[in-house]
Amino acid sequence: MLRSLAIVAAPVLLLAACGPQAPNAGQQTIQGQSMARMRASVDTISAYTKGTASQASAHQAAMELAAWSDRLADLFPPDTAPKQYVDMTADMARAAPAVMRRESANLLAATDSGKPEQTAAALASMRKNGCGACHQTVPY
Ligand code: HEC
User: Residue 82: which domain range?
Assistant: First the structure.
């Protein structure tokens, strides 16, 4: 669903870099950063389910996912996000924050339970329903 995003985003970044005073030139957008951080959190929790990361780090990662979920509505407003990201619809932007909050809460409860199997199931649900609210395929 979001395959052509890079193509759309590139000209915007180039324009931003043109001005003599481009404070954000070359820097990633907060939207891009949010995704990089969420991906890192998913990876950390995945590592916990495989026994290669601590429960404490998985807890921290789940907390971060919950925090980003709370910011999604501001980062991707339903009225403007679809204009910036060709593959994103207003319906997706409207629905995603609540789903991400629910999936994050579920994931946090699972990591806090200290059961890697339960956490793996919650993570699969997060990928499918949470990230999947906007990403058709989630290679993360
Ligand atoms: C609100 C809709 C939405 C949700 C929910 C969402 N994403 Fe994204 N994602 C986007 C958009 C839009 C972009 C493009 C952002 C940009 O480049 O500015 C993106 C980009 C990304 C990228 C960068 C892709 C690339 O090709 O570089 C990663 C990684 C990513 N998302 C991971 C995730 C993960 C992991 C989740 C779930 C925890 C998630 N996303 C949930 C909308 C969403």
Answer: 30-133
Instruction: Name the domain count of the chain.
Output: 1
Looking at the domain assignment, is residue 17 inside a domain? no
SS3 2: coil
CB of 9 shorter than 6 A to ligand 1: yes
Task: Say what the pLDDT of residue 21 is.
Answer: 57
Does 139 map to a domain?
Answer: no
Report if residue 111 sits inside a domain.
yes
Task: Specify the residue with its C-alpha closest to ligand 1, atom 36.
Answer: 131
Q: Which of 4-13, 64-73, 109-118, 120-129 shows the lowest per-residue confidence on average (mean pLDDT)?
A: 4-13
Does ligand 1 come within 6 angstroms of the Cβ of 29?
yes
Q: Is 14 within the bounds of a domain? A: no
Q: Is 88 helix (H, G, I), strand (E, B) or coil?
A: coil
Ligand 1 lined by 134 (C-beta under 6 Å): yes
| Tens-place pLDDT, residues 61-92 | 999 999 999 999 999 999 999 999 988 999 99
CB 139 within 8 A of CB 39: no
55 lines ligand 1 (CB under 6 A): no
Q: Structure tokens of 51?
A: 């026994």
Residue with tokens 């949470």: 130
